[in-house]
Amino acid sequence: MKKQKRKKFHKYKSRSKESLVTSEFPLTEQDRITYSYKKDDRGKYIEVTNVSYEGRIRDEWITIVRYDSSHGYLHRHTRISLSNESETTHTNRVIKRGSHHKWLTWAIKDLRANFVDYRRLFFKRSKTIDNYY
Amino acid sequence: MTKKKQAIKNLDLSQKLAEYIASNPMAVKNLPKKSTFVVLSSVDHKLNVENQKLIDSVVAEGKKVIKVVQTKDKFNPWKFSPVAY
């Protein structure tokens, strides 16, 4: 007796609605942090769109370092200098595994621990003195 | 309080608030979408004095500011007050 193959019926997956949440938080008069993340309609984190640390330099807000997970993994972008708007992208010392929620938390903790160093190095590359911290 | 201490404390508070907003989107439903949140602590008076100055400087930039006060209420841990818009 021939075995009948079970037909697989692909369930129609309705598109869940995504919402983008962006929140800006000043840390001092001269720097701030911005969080952007996407959630689905069940409240689950889909993507860390952006976690950025910005500094106010010569009356202009500049993103010094930011994290995103747009390619399916968390990575860090670092602006080169005041005169060079390009960014370097790397995953050195960046968490590799985990959920998007875990990545968001990790990015914030990394900024908490290192934002002064990121800022200091940015000013060094820009050949400018940072008198703030 | 040094600026570095203020920034670190604000990072900690902003993380807690961001988690709350992510989990409770209804809490900010009626607030403008592109708002700037300045957080006041329930216990740190010195930080609150500095952050009050921060509110003034952000308002002077023309931004929509929401003052968020940390409470000791488990069910409503944050109180949102629009400052200027």
Strand-helix topology:
The complex is a heterodimer of chains A (133) and B (85).
Chain A: E1 19-26, E2 31-39, E3 45-57, E4 60-68, E5 75-79, E6 87-90, H1 100-125
Antiparallel strand pairs in A: 1-2, 2-3, 3-4, 4-5, 5-6
Chain B: H1 3-23, E1 36-40, H2 45-60, E2 65-70, E3 78-84
Parallel strand pairs in B: 1-2
Antiparallel strand pairs in B: 2-3
Description:
With 133 residues, chain A is an alpha+beta fold. A 6-stranded antiparallel sheet of chain A has the order 1-2-3-4-5-6, with helices on one face. In chain A, a hairpin with a 4-residue loop joins β1 and β2. Chain A is elongated. Chain A starts with 18 loop residues before the first strand and ends in an 8-residue tail after the last helix. Chain B is an alpha+beta fold. Classes of the chains: A alpha+beta (133), B alpha+beta (85). The interface between A and B is medium-sized, with 27 and 28 residues.
Task: Provide keyphrases for this structure.
heterodimer, A: 133 residues, alpha+beta, six-stranded antiparallel sheet, 6 strands, B: 85 residues, three-stranded mixed sheet, 21% strand
Task: Give the helix level of chain A as a range of percent.
Answer: 10-25%
Biggest beta sheet attributes of chain B? 3 strands, mixed
Classify the oligomer.
heterodimer
The radius of gyration of chain B is 13 Å
Please outline what is shown here.
Chain A is an alpha+beta fold. Chain A is built from one helix and six strands, in the order E-E-E-E-E-E-H. Chain A has one helix at residues 100-125; strands spanning 19-26, 31-39, 45-57, 60-68, 75-79, 87-90.
